[in-house]
Each structure stands twice: as structure tokens, then as C-alpha cells.
Amino acid sequence: MRELNEQCYITFYGDWIGRPCDNVFHVKTIEENAERIKIVLDEYEVVVDNPQNIQSEAKEYTIAHADKVIIYENWNVFRIYEKNAERLTKTEDGHTEALKTESPYYAVCVSILS
Predict the structure, then answer these.
(1) Which residue range is the domain that position 55 belongs to?
(2) pLDDT classification of 62: cutoffs 50, 70, 90
(3) Dist CA 23 CA 102 (whole Å)
(4) pTM for this model (two decimals)
């Protein structure tokens, strides 16, 4: 587990929480294992299932591919991204929609601000 306590922007397949660059989060910790990564922010917890191609640099932490990304807000499911061979979907408030993404979007991209 890495403790960071850094300000950041975070995106999921190029999708933001709120409007782009409107919300700044504090990434507190990142816990990694082979099957799952957990990123703890202020009010959110991001769980990434089957993460692949992980890169960690001083100013950016990226996960190129994942089967599922679940975002919890105060222990309740806020949003779910699921990717399979056919499509990528986003579920929020009980509504599921197909997303169109093209490279270079990462499953998760944490950009550290400092």
C-alpha cells in the first residue's frame, strides 16, 4: 500500500466525475494486488478489477485496461464501468449506457497536481 495524500484529477475511460477539471480530489492510498487495485480518495473509493498495464510515475498513475471499475461514494455504489470484448458500459443511478472510447483513454488515470 502506498500512502500519497496528494491532490489529483481522476478520469475513467476519459470520463470525469462532474465537469472536466472541476473536481480536485485527494488521493490518500493506492493498494495493489494481482487481481484488484483500490484507490482511496476523500469521499470516494475506486475498485479496479483485473487491472492491466499499470504505470506509476511521479505525476501520473495509470491503468490502461480493466474488466470493471467500481466507484463508491460513502460506501454506496456511485458508478460502474464494465468492459468486455464487445463494448464499454457506464452504469449510474440505475441507468446503463454504452460509451464510445478510443485510445489513448486509460481505464483509470490519476493526474497528481503539485
Answers:
(1) 2-113
(2) very high
(3) 23
(4) 0.90
